[in-house]
Amino acid sequence: MGIHRGHRARPLEWLAERFIFLVSLSTILMVFLIFLFVAREALPIFFGGANTAPLQTVLSPEAMNQLSPAQLQAYLELTPQQFATLDRESIQALLQVKQEAQDEIPAQVRSDPDARVNTVEWKYLLGPHQWSGYDKPEYIWQPVGQIQKYNIIPLLVGTLKITLIGLLFAVPLAVGAAIYVSQLARPRVREIVKPAIELLSGIPSVVVGFFALLILASVLQKIFGYPVRLNAFVAGCALGFAVIPVIFSIAEDALSSVPQAYTQAALALGASRWQTAWQIVLPAGLPGVFAAAVLGFGRAIGETMIVLMVCSASVMSWNIFDSARSITTTIAAEMAEAVTGGPHYRILFMLGALLFAGTFISNLIGGVVIQRFKLKLEGKR
Amino acid sequence: MADISLPKITATATAAAGPSARPLIQIESVSLYYGASQALKTISLPLAEKVVTAFIGPSGCGKSTLLRCLNRMNDLIDNVRIEGSIRIGGHDIYDRDVDVIELRKRVGMVFQKSNPFPKSIYENVAYGLRLHGLRNPAALDEAVEKSLQQSALWEEVKDRLHSSALGLSGGQQQRLCIARAIAIRPEIILMDEPASALDPIATARIEELILDLKKDFTIVIVTHNMQQAARISDQTAFFYIGELVEFGPTGRIFTNPTQKRTEDYVTGRFG
Amino acid sequence: MNTLTPSQYLPETPPGRHFRAEKFDVGSFFFSGLTGLATLFILAILGVILTNIILNGWSALSWHFVSTIPKKDFFDAATTGVLPMIVGTTIRVFVMTIFVIPVGVITAIYLTEYAPNTSIITRVIRAAVNNLAGVPSIVFGLFGLGFFIHFIGKNLDTLLHHPSAVWGQPALIWAALTLAIMTLPVVIVATEESLKAIPPGLREASLALGATKLETILRIVLPQALPGILTGGILAVSRAAGEVAPILFTGVAYYMASLPSRLSDQFMDLGYHVFVLSTQSPNIDQTRPLLYATVLVLLILTLALNIVAILIRARVRKKMRALG
Predict the structure, then answer these.
(1) Which of A115-129, A140-154, A166-180, B226-240 has the weakest average pLDDT?
(2) Which of B188, B189, B157, B187 is nearest to B173 (CA)?
(3) Within a domain: B4
(4) Is residue B1 part of a domain?
(5) Contact in structure between B153 and B181 (CB atoms under 8 Å)
(6) pLDDT band at C313 (very low <50, low <70, confident <90, very high)
(7) Digit-coded pLDDT (tens) for B70-107
(8) To the nearest whole angstrom, how far is the Cα of B266 from the nearest Cα of chain C?
(9) I need a labelling partner for B169 at 20 to 30 A (CA). Which of A116, B18, B112, B230 fits?
């Protein structure tokens, strides 16, 4: 009769549901692809496939017969597919080219004791090395010239410096404002202030960087009187501006989620609004505020344009009034000059992969903390 | 009247033989579990056609839960398990190949809190009709007018059919929801405490309406208001903590109940 | 019986006492004031940045400025203009919305209407969306380079037998796709928020009338959620318009002789232009007014979009309160 048909009667509905599900799954795919393709370009570095030393053991074309195809392929730095398409003469020609390139290396470089160093080995990426011309071991990032130095420590230090300054500036301000807006301000004030601070997040980071470059740097220089006008401190402050809205909105949301019941109980006992906020709401909302800081940290680390516009030189120093390069700015500034597929290119991608892993972890932590926090609040009700 | 052309389910149509018509709805040994906890305990209940049956009982006794089984709205809740069978017109509605959508066209529902769509009054009533394929504007107009008349709302809204339904009062909105439900001519209308959110005057109008509707529809109404049940229902079922305690003609339940628990409840000793 | 009366353990309150504070609560006042100052300071920063840019950029802003295609020398005040940058920014953002809004809305519908709460897949999808939101913009740029350009683009060229790179190089379409992935979480969150605000009673009413879930979503839920979806779209557009890092390697150019006409073309961009000029122009005093004007155009664009989104959101919240 009429009511007997079951779900088979509605194939369109079933199809639509499957389609909706698949589209949603694509988000997982995207995260996966991002990591995959960024790491893919960087992988040869991790497996020791590249050698950046200007002086390498050279094979003459005549010695071609003494080597196995696999060795030849590795020496010429070709993929198996590319190698397979070459005939004997082409291989010989390539060997010739390589030998001539070696001969063209200036004598200065030949005599440099560092000329045989493979600068992308891990000990050079991470550890200090006394390069020729320097009187002590240094961490240097200088990917130009014949001997390219890829030590990433100055970049890590730069990133940390700028990020920490930014957070030091942003967290107290944002959390303070969050406490004020969610607990102490009148509802009318809240309605105006909240969207206004959100508007700050609507200012593109290029514009903030521009403002920092032109105005902030000079103002801060007048106040603090440091020699280098464009330095990590200015970048950090500007970065703080950009991160404040992120921390503010998450912290404000967390504090507002603390059940009204707590606030009302405290007020009914005669506590002032401040005492209630400080002694009851803030401790209850602390995990959420902490998560806000963690997520702000993730955002700060990933910020590119502001720091790019303010700082430019890569200097290895802990002095906040020196210039600094962060990981993001290095990638942004140098990718255009890096030869596709070359060691510089791959190292930049490696930095990107590192960055992705770092923000992935910090976001995971922040997300888990917030989830636990919200569950705890609901459980208590 | 707009013809939706659905084969009608009637008890008499499915009766094999014999003078007494089988009940339209036959609930047999129905138990319902939310996860591990049992909300309904082997309920068996026959509900007759074109009659108002009231489900009464204290809060949490399962009357709304049983009501929602009748149009399978409980399917929407995770973790629900149902045993036993519910036959409407002879067909077990929990059968594997039953199309829930079809079922809900035949068994309509009016909710406790009126929930008109944020559309015009006309569009609210026409929603179900359009859903089931009626597109002819003249036929729609006629069907909408008939439904609004039958739910005693026509005179009040006939001049503003295209204004928003949300502008109506609480009582008017509930009558609109009733109009919306009866527009698609279901055989059975389930009402889950339809007047509990309304003031006494609006409640009285709804009760009048129900008495009028039972000429054309079979009505099952859940109510926590015993006087209401006494006023409008022909049969009454009394539930207590998931069990069916007593079922019978309303007059007898309220004046001469056979179970002590029933007597205690209707005399107001608890609940 | 021995009953403890309040006066036995709280300090004596003399009779006839009014409910006035005993002494001034310095601590509360001080700390409340401090947080209020923090709020004020943040708003002041906002104000300073906006004022500075508006004041300095207003003078160089003109109808001529926003409608002219400049010659290679951007600093000739007579012939300069930002039209190609505006066009470039607008087109890339427009192409982005074609991809991001359908995917974002469908995902949000799945998460709100269909996804079983206890399922692991649901949690993984949510985690994925949260993570997408946290990926640095430069990493998106790298992804665009490594995936869209060097993988998809290159293979597309091979498939279509192009002698030289057409798709395997920076292009409008790749920048737009990269931005779409980057702003996906914005659309998803805004759409979910608007879907959740719809009272469940409406869905129940529709289902009880014999509508299928899909019909309920298409006829009742989505129309109600449209303003929220619009908000999400506008916020995504505003965010994407201001971002420079993701387009650095995926399609932006400092100077193009003509406006972009095909999806494989490169494009100019407001933000990128500001970046290049600020960091690489030799005489900053000469270029100052033009720079400010360019920044002002970008700011007007993004802020106007943000304000519209906020206004729509406020109106929707008011409407929802009437419904619920």
Answers:
(1) A115-129
(2) B157
(3) no
(4) no
(5) no
(6) confident
(7) 999 988 887 899 999 999 988 899 988 888 888 999 99
(8) 31
(9) B230
Report yes or no on B149 lying in a domain: yes
- CA-to-CA distance for B223 and B213, rounded, in angstroms? 17
Do A230 and A369 reside in the same domain of the chain?
yes
- The answer for residues whose C-beta is within 8 angstroms of residue A250's C-beta and 6 or more apart is A288, A291, A292, A295, A296, A370
Domain that holds residue B92: 11-266
Q: Rounded CA gap, B209 and B151, in Å?
A: 6
Whole-number pLDDT of residue A1: 32
A187 lies in the same domain as A302: yes
| pLDDT tens-place string over residues C19-46 | 666 666 777 788 888 888 999 999 999 9
Domain of residue C307 covers 56-102+119-187+232-323
Q: What is the CATH number of the domain that holds B248?
A: 3.40.50.300
Which of C106, C136, C274 shows the shortest C-beta gap to A206?
A: C274
CB contact under 8 A, A38 and C146: yes
- CA A325 to chain CA mean position, Å: 12
**Is B117 close to C322, i.e. CB distance below 8 A?**
no
Write the DSSP assignment of C298-310 as a string of letters.
HHHHHHHHHHHHH
Phi then psi for residue C172, to 5 deg, are -55, -45
Asked if residue C266 is part of any domain, the answer here is yes
Choose, out of C26, C35, C54, the residue to mutate when testing the contact with A (most A CBs < 10 Å). Answer: C35
In a domain, C316, yes or no: yes
Count of domains forming chain B: 1
Number of domains comprising chain A: 2
pLDDT score at B3: 39
Q: What is the pLDDT of residues C206-239, one digit of tens each?
A: 999 999 999 999 999 999 999 889 989 999 999 9
Chain B hits for C211, Cβ within 8 Å: 101, 131
DSSP conformational letter for C198: S
DSSP C82-101: -HHHHHHHHHHHHHHHHHHH
ipTM for this model:
0.85
* pLDDT (mean) for B126-155: 92
For residue A39, the enclosing domain spans: 7-46
Nearest alpha-carbon partner for A282 in A179, A177, A132: A179
pLDDT, tens digit, 9 for 90 and up, residues B200-257: 999 999 999 999 998 999 999 999 888 899 999 999 999 999 999 999 999 999 999 9
| pLDDT band at B183; cut points 50, 70, 90 | very high
Q: Residue B127: list chain C partners with CB under 8 A.
A: 206, 209, 219
A145 inside domain: no
Is C21 domain-assigned? no
Judge whether C42 lies within some domain: no
- Quick one: which of C246, C241, C227 has its CA closest to C308? C227
Residues B118, C208: C-beta atoms closer than 8 Å = no
Q: Average the pLDDT over A248-277 and give the result.
A: 86
| Per-residue model confidence (pLDDT) at position A381 | 43
